[in-house]
Structure formats: C-alpha cells, structure tokens
Amino acid sequence: MRGSAVPCYEPCRMNDLDPRLNAFRPDLADARLKGKVEAARFAAGTARRVIAASAPLKRTPRPDASLDSEVLRGEVFTVFAEDDDGWSWGQLDTDRYVGHVPTNALGPIAPEPTHRIAVLRAFAYPGPDMKLPASGTLSLGACLALDQEATTRGSSYRRIAGGEGWVLAVVGQPIAAPPENDFVAVAERFLNVPYLWGGRTGLGVDCSSLVQLALMTAGKSAPRDTDQQEAMLGRAVEGGIAAPLHRGDLVFWKGHVAVLIDGEYVVHASGYHAMVVIEPLAEAVARIASPPTSLRRLA
Q1: DSSP assignment, residue 232?
Q2: How many CB atoms lie within 10 A of CB 167?
Q3: Tens digit of pLDDT for each residue in 40-85?
Q4: Rounded Cα–Cα distance for residues 133 and 171 (Å)
C-alpha cells in the first residue's frame, strides 16, 4: 500500500501538513513552517545534489528500516540535519517527500545537470567504450551533467562532468528537449520490471512510482504515494470504471493504482505478480480485495 527542483521537472505541492511532504519534528523544522508547527528550532536547510545513481529514502535512519522511496542521480535534496551515523534528514525537491538519505549519496549542488536518462536503464563506463566493465547503472529520470564527446567504433559517448565516467550519447536526452508525448507508452516500457516496495528506478518500482516516473518523463509532476495521487492528479470521472474508459485514465484502489491502456487493459506494478504487468482490468478488479475507489482522468 503506497498510501500509508530537480532541473528536469516542476515540483509537486500539497497544502496540508502531511508529514511525508512537510519537514517537521519536535527538535527541528523547515523554516517555511514557522508559525504552522511547533519545533525547538527552525532551519532553512542546505540544497544538495544526489550524486549516487540512486539511494534509499527512509522514514527511520537505519539500514534495516523499510524503504519509503528512492532518490535519483541529479535530484536536489534539501538537508536540514545530519547525524553521526551517516544519514541526512531532509526533503526531496522533486515530489516534496521527507525522509532520511545516506549522506554519502549527496554532494555539491553544482554542476547543474544538462541531460536526463531517457531509457529504462543505462550503464556508465570508466571510458568511452562499451567493452569496458560497467562502473554503474543509471535509471530513467536520472539527471547528470555531460561535457566532452568521443567516438569509439562508431558509437558516440559523453563524459560525465568531472571525469567520473562516460555514457553512450544515445541514452541521454538534453533537459531542454521536449518531453515524451505518451506517458502510457513509457509505463509499458517497465513491463516485467520487478515489484519493489518503495522502489523508484528502472531496477524496481511500486505501483505509484510507476505512475510518477511515467508522468515525469512526459513532463508532468506527480506526488509519490497513491493517496496523494488520487487527491491531486486529474479529475474524478463520474461513474468510475462503469463510465467510458480512456487511455491514460488512472484506476485507484485503497493503496493501489493502475494505468488504463485502453478500455480493457491496464498496466501496473503488481505485488501479486511481483512485477509490472499488463492484464485485463476486469481480472485486476476481481482479484483485488477492495473495489476501486475512483477513476481519474488527467486531461
């Protein structure tokens, strides 16, 4: 159940003081919340750039704590506090999610990313040659600064600024480039990607991150969890799934969301199937214990 600015995309906002989306605790709170919450101290926070390919975001700063979400390379994370165990508490600019991130996954705000990864997964190499052992894996939606160009055996590469590695030029799209025009097609690219609670990368997703990443790639912001998405995305369709269904409609259950491909099939990250699947909506409705709570249309 998922209901329990990054340079690429416009951040989301909610007006109420949901602790998932507002950084406050008894000892410390975001300075922007002064007068709205009680805390011993208020701080403006320090913007840091995610320098790891991805990193966990957790409610509790422990390696064995449940995964709430993940942060991606190039995203901005505002740090309000760091502890002695290597965790930073703060807020992700992309979707306003609050939690603890490993401090070593964060770095200076510069350089500003120039490209975003436009494929499901991409490898980084120590040099401009795909025959070299891969040095890392980047996910769809990750952003990074690329500078030098090189060609090896007819394939073009771009260097990651600072010289930490190279990527094939074809996997990186300039941030200023037009977004994808069909977010449903993006969601379908995740077919068979494993289900991972809290996952938010091309290596593993949950139901709401599949929707978030697909919409993000299409230039549309989306909150992280299903209850937030149901409250904030699109408009409710009268009659729910009994109404005429359109491609791109979102079907919500308590703690789950699926994307309609057409009037019959949905694509969703299914815990039951342990992966992203395409299946008839009728089968999903029959299997899931609770009935759909709403159908929402984005346009």
Answers
A1: H
A2: 23
A3: 999 999 999 999 999 999 999 999 999 999 999 999 999 999 999 9
A4: 18
CB-based contacts of 148, cutoff 8 Å, min separation 6: 158, 159
Going by their DSSP bridges, the two strands 28-30 and 42-43 should be labelled as parallel
b/e per residue 173-211 (b: at least 16 CB within 10 A): bebeeebbeebbebbebbeebebbbbbbbbbbbbbbbbb
Q: What is the pLDDT of residues 88-132, one digit of tens each?
A: 999 999 999 999 999 999 999 999 999 999 999 999 999 999 999
- Dihedral sign for Cα 275, 278, 284, 287, please: negative
Domains belonging to the chain, first-starting first, are 24-107 (2.30.30.40), 115-174 (2.30.30.40), 183-297 (3.90.1720.10)
Please report, for residues 24, 129, 170, the alpha-carbon distance to residue 154 in angstroms, rounded to integers and kept in the order given: 53, 10, 12
Cβ atoms 68, 58 nearer than 8 A: yes
* Distance from C-alpha of 213 to C-alpha of 215, rounded to nearest angstrom: 5
* Residue count of the chain: 299
Stated pTM of the model: 0.93
Tokens of 1: 């159940």
